[in-house]
Recover the amino acids of this structure.
């Protein structure tokens, strides 16, 4: 995600390394990266909530934890999307300063200070203050304040997470109930795509955004129940096989619905959601089939630590370019901005961020949503 997000604004990049053009039907592997993240987040929900239940957390506490996590993601998404829409493509030191403050505030607010508990409250106070300051100081180009927008990744994750948690807390591990919820979400996405909405923008996008992204995450929840609750969870064949069957079913459904609304990520169509969830299920099946290595190579351990703390890596990636521009590196945006050199630049930036995130994780700096 860090790599392709860095390439997005650059020029002369091969088409398969960027999002498919929004006015053309189809998808590239880049259009599956966010869905794969949603799918993985959904797959983690059964294990996370079952662990809290076994720990003795009452039902209201589990619901409250989910509500706080959702609220934080939605607020962060609101701030990020508004900042991204201000002065697009033009230098804006004020926007860059607010983005750096937003990233730093989010890191401090969600910092898991288990290694140093005495820093927990001061860090949260400082982070909360910085988030409030960003919201107070923000001003749109037309002089207005914050407004509801779609597009920032945390906001999309927050919407989908709300749907997935609500479904799991309602029907539990019941496969029929989860499949029924998945079907209803696809119908919601189809209705939002195929019929005019009575709501003004951006609320007109609610049905398709919530329906499609929620369906992807709920498909992950279904996969997660299979991985954590199956009687043959210790075997090597049953779970990958069932994940592959889930992926095949989702892909077949996506292909059958393709003539209706087409495959468009920017429109969050039902077919795109089903195909993305299917490809993600295939990917998870492949991971489950990969033999475990008791002594993984260094790069695997490095990437593994980054994956354990993926939210930190994402936030750092959002703040690195604004920080460089504020530091006076005006050439940061134009250096290697097209062609093969831009691809190398993207790999370099992604490598540095993941390495730095892995180092912070190893030293106990983790974010806990």
């Amino acid at each position: 995600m860090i790599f392709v997000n860095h390439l997005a604004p650059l020029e002369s990049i091969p088409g398969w390394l960027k999002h498919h053009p929004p006015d053309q039907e189809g998808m590239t592997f880049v259009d599956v990266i966010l869905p794969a993240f949603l799918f993985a987040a959904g797959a983690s929900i059964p294990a996370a909530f079952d662990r809290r239940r076994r720990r003795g957390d009452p039902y209201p506490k589990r619901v409250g934890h989910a509500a706080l996590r959702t609220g934080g993601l939605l607020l962060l998404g609101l701030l990020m999307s508004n900042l991204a829409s201000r002065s697009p493509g033009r230098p804006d030191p004020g926007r860059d300063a607010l983005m750096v403050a937003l990233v730093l505030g989010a890191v401090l607010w969600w910092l898991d200070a288990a290694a140093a508990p005495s820093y927990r409250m001061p860090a949260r106070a400082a982070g909360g203050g910085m988030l409030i300051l960003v919201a107070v100081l923000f001003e749109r180009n037309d002089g207005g304040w914050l407004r509801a927008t779609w597009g920032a990744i945390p906001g999309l994750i927050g919407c989908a997470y709300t749907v997935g948690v609500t479904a799991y807390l309602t029907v539990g591990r019941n496969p029929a109930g989860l499949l029924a919820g998945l079907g209803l979400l696809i119908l919601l996405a189809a209705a939002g795509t195929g019929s005019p909405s009575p709501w003004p923008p951006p609320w007109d996008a609610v049905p398709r955004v919530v329906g499609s992204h929620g369906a992807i995450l709920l498909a992950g929840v279904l996969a997660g129940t299979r991985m954590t609750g199956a009687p043959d969870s210790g075997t090597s064949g049953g779970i990958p096989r069932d994940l592959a069957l889930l992926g095949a079913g989702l892909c077949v459904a996506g292909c059958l619905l393709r003539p209706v609304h087409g495959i468009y990520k920017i429109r969050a169509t039902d077919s795109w959601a089903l195909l993305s969830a299917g490809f993600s299920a295939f990917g998870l099946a492949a991971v489950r089939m990969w033999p475990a290595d008791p002594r993984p190579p260094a790069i695997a351990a490095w990437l593994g630590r980054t994956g354990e703390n993926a939210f930190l890596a994402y936030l750092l990636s959002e703040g690195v370019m604004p920080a460089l521009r504020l530091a006076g590196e005006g050439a940061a945006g134009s250096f290697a901005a097209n062609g093969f050199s831009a691809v190398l630049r993207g790999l370099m930036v992604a490598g540095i961020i993941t390495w730095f995130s892995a180092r912070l994780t190893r030293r106990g700096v983790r974010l806990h949503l």
About this structure: The two ends are 19 Å apart (CA to CA). Residues 32-296 form one domain. Residues 59-84 form the longest helix (26 residues). The beta strands are 111-112, 366-367.
